Amino acid sequence: MAETIAIASDHAAVELKAALVAFMREAGHDVLDLGPDGPASVDSPDYGYRLARAVAEGRATRGVALCGSGIGISIAVNRNPACRAALVSEPLSARLAREHNDANVIAMGARLIGVEMAKACLAAFLATPFGGDRHQRRVDMLSSPANSSSERQPA
């Protein structure tokens, strides 16, 4: 099923972003490319926040966050409580991020992953549904710490 996928990167991941945009469009998805458009140095948090807003506001159902390591941009995305970004480097972690954690953003490091592996991770992420059931309680905790038993009980 086609959906709108937002994608953003920093300067280190512009080439990987272009390859993944083409990959998603070939698969029939609408792509919301949030930049940047070239290799000039930019700050990954700015693009992570931009991506998180697009997902939180419903302009995209899911997102792809890219930077050199994938770490900085994923931290920025995860600042938004509507987003659950998972940093992945192979298809199994991408599949489990969706199935167990209902991740709505996948993050990858362009300096750490090749284009073909990134495509395999993205394909697994987009093809895997959330498992629900026993995982839903934990996803609720991720979205709101007040739902966590550790927040309701004194330490």
Automatic annotation (TrEMBL):
Q: Where are the transmembrane segments?
A: none
Which species is this UniProt entry from? Alterirhizorhabdus solaris
List its EC numbers: 5.3.1.6
Q: Does the keyword Oxidoreductase apply?
A: no
Keywords of the record, alphabetical order, are:
Isomerase
Give the UniProt record's GO annotations in the biological process aspect.
Answer: carbohydrate metabolic process
**Record's Pfam families?**
LacAB_rpiB
Which leading EC class covers this enzyme? isomerase
Q: Which Gene3D superfamilies match?
A: Sugar-phosphate isomerase, RpiB/LacA/LacB
Return the protein name. Ribose 5-phosphate isomerase B
Family the entry assigns:
Belongs to the LacAB/RpiB family.
Query: Which residues does the record give as D-ribulose 5-phosphate binding sites?
Result: 10-11, 68-72, 101, 111, 134, 138
Which GO molecular function entries does the Swiss-Prot or TrEMBL record give? ribose-5-phosphate isomerase activity
Q: Which residues form the active site?
A: 67, 100
Top-level taxonomic group: Bacteria
* Residues in the signal sequence: none
